[in-house]
Specification:
By secondary structure, the protein is α+β, with helices and mostly antiparallel strands. The chain has 5 helices and 10 strands, in the order αββαββαββββββαα.
Length: 196
């Protein structure tokens, strides 16, 4: 009777003597695969790219200070002092978790942190000292879009950029972008310091 009930609702395949496979089992597997693919697509909606100076000695950096933060969004929900405080708290939390100590105020630090969040779609050219002892200039073109967070770590002794993370979330709703800020900062600093 169980075989008849199964064959009425799902076609049955006989693959080997004594072995019965239901086509519904195959559809269940396909559903699981489809859900996994959708979950993966959601994970890739946030893009993070990392650049760093391979000549920098990251082991010597023990302290940091957040020196500058810019919010460049046209949307007032993303261009507020509360968003700025949240980004700075996330950066402090994540760098402290990587055994760096935060220097309060204008005191000297091993790394100066600078970040930019938001902005309409545009390309911006930024120049940094580069080369031996900072003699020379490195010009970097950075694409900014709504939901873009750029975190720069600079060595104040050479005034050179040693680490840059760019996290992008393609969302049109400002509240959804704001909901991703913690995740954007976390993913931006997750691979700091780089492995030698």
């Amino acid at each position: 009777r169980a075989m008849r009930a199964l064959s009425r609702s799902c076609p049955v395949e006989y693959t080997a003597p004594g072995h019965v496979t239901s086509v519904c089992d195959n559809f269940g597997s396909m559903r699981i695969l489809l859900l996994a693919l959708l979950a993966t697509a959601g994970a890739f909606a946030q893009k993070v790219s990392i650049e760093f100076d391979p000549a920098a000695t990251f082991a010597k950096y023990r302290t940091f200070a957040i020196r500058d933060g810019q919010l460049n969004s046209r949307n007032p929900a993303l261009n507020s002092e509360l968003v700025k405080k949240r980004i700075e708290a996330d950066i402090a939390r994540d760098l402290t978790a990587r055994r760096l100590a935060m220097v309060p105020g204008p005191g000297p630090a091993d790394l100066d942190v600078r970040y930019t969040f938001g902005a309409a779609r545009e390309m911006k050219a930024e120049a940094y000292p580069a080369g031996w002892r900072g003699w020379g200039t490195r010009v970097v073109r950075v694409p900014y879009a709504e939901g873009t967070l750029v975190v720069d770590l600079l060595d104040p002794t050479t005034h050179s950029l040693v680490w840059r993370a760019i996290a992008r979330v393609e969302k049109s709703d400002a509240m959804k972008v704001e909901g991703k800020i913690d995740d954007m900062v976390g993913k931006s600093l997750k691979k700091y310091p780089p492995k030698p």
